[in-house]
Amino acid sequence: MHGSIPPAAPDPTPAELISARPFLSQGTPDGLAFEGVPLAAIADALGTPTYVYSAGTIRARFAALTAALTAAGLSAHIHYAVKANDHLAVLRLLGRLGAGADVVSAGELGRALAAGIPAERIVFSGVGKTGAELARALEAGTGQINVESAEELAELSAIATGLGRIAPVALRVNPDIDAGTHAKITTGLAQNKFGIPAAEIPALYAQAARLPGIAPMGLALHIGSQILSLAPFRESFSVLARLVRELRASGFPLTRVDCGGGLGVAYRNEPAPTPEGLAGALAETFRGLDVALLLEPGRWLLAPAGLLLASVVRIKPGPERPFVVLDAGMNDLIRPALYEAWHGIVPLAPPLAPTNAEPASADIVGPICESADTFATARALPSLVPGARVALLDAGAYGRVMGSAYNARPRAAEAMVDGEHWALIRPRPPLASLWADELVPDWL
Ligand code: LLP
Q1: Which residue in 8, 199, 353, 369 is the catalytic one?
Q2: Does the Cβ of 146 fall within 6 Å of ligand 1?
Q3: 155: Cβ–Cβ under 8 A, 6 or more apart, which residues?
């Protein structure tokens, strides 16, 4: 299961978590720092809960992924999966580094364009693009539309013809391969709603080539997220390669293969594949095929580049161990509640003297009125007191974007660090903004 661990394996200590993350450090008297910025300074200035992203981490990870692809001799382009973290500052940073974007809604398309990512570097994915969204994508000049069904293809043809546009299309293949990740984020099995069965691709590709307004360019794939083994990547890439050969033999000049996202990260200390491993699998499969490769990574680029700062509101005794109640909740970071995900939790304050630093096991929870609002169960942490601050690690992907204002809690503030600098990139909304757009009918 996604992020699951053998129950007997001890959790990594805060010191181990920090040393495994090159942009985090812990020192006296400043405590936990992200790049050159003590996180306590951000928490003092902005309060908590607050997300903090590290520009340096994003740059380093983008460079590492690009370098691995180049070293494997691949002509590959990165289309960052905007859903992982759609803040304009993140998109601007990645766009300036040369990334394109993978978007799944008119909103994400708008964000990518607003951040300056050129339309031709944008891929539009998703199983439920509306007619209006397809039209918007065509009008914007989107570089590739990943079509997920015969029905969508027919609708896109009609819309493109009506607009006098030609839609650059890739067909998304459902290879019926188990990505070995959490069931809720597996997308490449036959029973999942995504993509077109491999067996139906040749006929549909031929149809795409006949349809007005459609320019078929190639194939796409995305089998799931937080994938921790290269095997499902290899298997699904070989399905793509087989289809490319078959279609070319039938006379269709495919030029592109979009291999999706999914590369997992070590949230705890689980073995995770490397960019070099992924690049090797790509090179093995596509070497000699002369296709332009596209990748849609989200989590791998962003997860370790962000953390969520929270404060301890109260320590409440429990039957087995205390509850450490934080001011961040599942409305801020839903991954533990939704996927039983494990996130490292590290105090901001420097460690106390060894005699006082005996780790105590606690349940780390939020203030929301649901028992799902639990970040960690039986987690050993140096003892915390009310007012102490912690960082929930690896929250840069699928963190704030999946947040809500449930329990009428304003969504977390956001900041970005870069070297010695930091900036507020989205303030905490004032309470009154929570209901400012609500209309009460005058007949009430
Ligand atoms: N491309 C497509 C078509 C996708 O659906 C996704 C993610 C990606 C790329 C990026 O995948 P990544 O590289 O980030 O694994 N909320 C979940 C993850 C959902 C992923 C959805 N699709 C979580 O917090 O674990």
Answers
A1: 369
A2: no
A3: 131, 134
Residues 219-247 as b or e (16 or more Cβ within 10 Å = b): bbbbbbbbbbebebbbbbbbbbbebbeeb
Answering whether pTM is above 0.90, one says yes
The class that CATH gives domain 55-302 is alpha beta
State the fold for domain 14-54+304-434.
Lyase, Ornithine Decarboxylase; Chain A, domain 1 (2.40.37)
pLDDT for the residue numbered 301: 98
Ligand 1: which of 296, 301, 330, 332 to mutate, judged by most atoms within 8 Å of the beta carbon? 296
Q: How far apart are the CA of 437 and the centre of ligand 1, in A?
A: 31
Nearest to 301 by CA among 24, 58, 56: 58
Q: Is any ligand 1 atom within 6 A of the Cβ of residue 296?
A: yes
Q: Is the distance from the beta carbon of residue 226 to the nearest atom of ligand 1 less than 6 Å?
A: yes
Evaluate: CB of 332 within 6 angstroms of ligand 1.
no
For ligand 1, the distance from its centroid to the CA atom of residue 412, given in whole angstroms, is: 22
Average pLDDT along the chain, 444 residues, taken 10 residues at a time: 58 96 95 98 98 98 98 96 98 98 98 98 97 98 98 98 98 94 91 95 98 98 97 97 98 97 97 98 95 98 98 97 97 98 96 63 97 97 94 98 98 98 98 98 98
Q: What is the pLDDT of residue 1?
A: 43
- Based on the residue annotation, tell me whether 369 is a catalytic residue of this protein: yes
Instruction: With H, G, I as helix, E, B as strand and everything else as coil, classify residue 342.
Output: coil
| Atom 23 of ligand 1: nearest residue by CA position | 398
Q: Is 84 in the pocket of ligand 1 (CB under 6 A)?
A: yes
List the one residue out of 319, 333, 400 whose CA is nearest residue 366.
333
Burial category of 434 from C-beta neighbours within 10 Å (exposed 0-12, middle 13-18, buried 19 and up): middle
* End-to-end Cα distance, the chain: 49
How crowded is residue 290: how many other Cβ atoms within 10 Å of its Cβ?
Answer: 11
Pairing of strands 167-174, 196-197: parallel
Query: What is the pLDDT, as a whole number, of residue 238?
Result: 97
For residue range 333-378, list pLDDT tens digits in order. Answer: 999 999 999 999 999 998 765 555 567 899 999 999 999 999 999 9
Q: Which residue ranges make up each domain of the chain? A: 14-54+304-434, 55-302
